[in-house]
Amino acid sequence: MTKKGKMCDMSQVSTLPIDVNESSEPVGNTPIVQYTNISKSYGKTEILKDLDFKIYPGEKVAIIGPSGSGKTTLARMLMTLEKPSSGRIEVNGEQLWHREVNGKLLPADEKHIRKVRGDIGMVFQHYNLFPHMTILKNVTAALIHVAGIEKTEAEQRAIQMLKKVGLDHKLDVYPAQLSGGQQQRVAIARALVMKPKIMLFDEVTSALDPELVGEVLEVIREIAAEGEMAMLLITHEMDFARDIADRVVFMEGGKVVEEGPPNLLFTKPKHQRTKEFLSRFHSR
Predict the structure, then answer these.
(1) Is the pLDDT of residue 14 over 70?
(2) In contact, 131 and 122? CB cutoff 8 Å
(3) What order of strands is seen across the sheet that includes strand 94-95?
(4) CATH 3.40.50.300: which residues of the chain?
(5) What's the CATH class of domain 30-119+198-284?
(6) Per-residue DSSP letter, 170
(7) Which residue, of 10, 33, 135, 164, has the greatest Cβ tally within 10 A?
(8) How much of the chain, in percent, has pLDDT values that exceed 70?
(9) Do residues 59 and 34 touch, judged by C-beta distance below 8 A?
(10) pLDDT above 90 (res 228)
(11) What is the pTM of this model?
(12) Is 125 strand, coil or helix?
């Protein structure tokens, strides 16, 4: 597994010009997700700085960059686990953190946030499975208690999804009886069974032993190959990003420094910071 890069001097990052490669966005398409002038601060520490970012329907976007560059915060905001300090996020044309009333944007209530967030699924670094529930119950819990699906139908959908990730023979076991790779595959099944329109994967292999990384990445590759949903992948696995992504985004200091198709960004990066970051992986 690749190692995380060191973060550069933040005072230098704030002056870096954005260098977006050509053909990095689909033409004539409406974004499924759009960040507009998004900033996030914790006290005096700026994590994201006036960020503009889009994801298009069915698009696979990989975000790379050093630790502390704002990658995970960007994803957590979309999952409503972090609130932006300023700016707007839209999902399927609807405001996520705001609602429009008589032409004015007001803070959204929890009902509105849940509704808009319903199209989003996320898999975290750590599996976050319920240890007291079987694998089948872990996957059906949200279907039954959030989506209101009847138990029999929920179990049928869960079994089909567990079969997709190769774990339909583990229905009655508990998370502690599975390897880390298997637990992460259950977490993927749990997210997919809700039929999201966009899936977020936040460093899903970082907590795994190296020999287990491949099985999880292969599942994600198979899901990506189906082409049905948009995917945002935050990863330090450069070969994986190159193979799976339609667009790769390099972030540093809370900004998008450079983005483009993987065949361009990995072979002919334009920005010096992108070149320096990628050189750490090419030299291994």
Answers:
(1) no
(2) no
(3) 45-55, 33-42, 86-91, 94-95
(4) 30-119+198-284
(5) alpha beta
(6) -
(7) 135
(8) 89
(9) no
(10) no
(11) 0.84
(12) coil
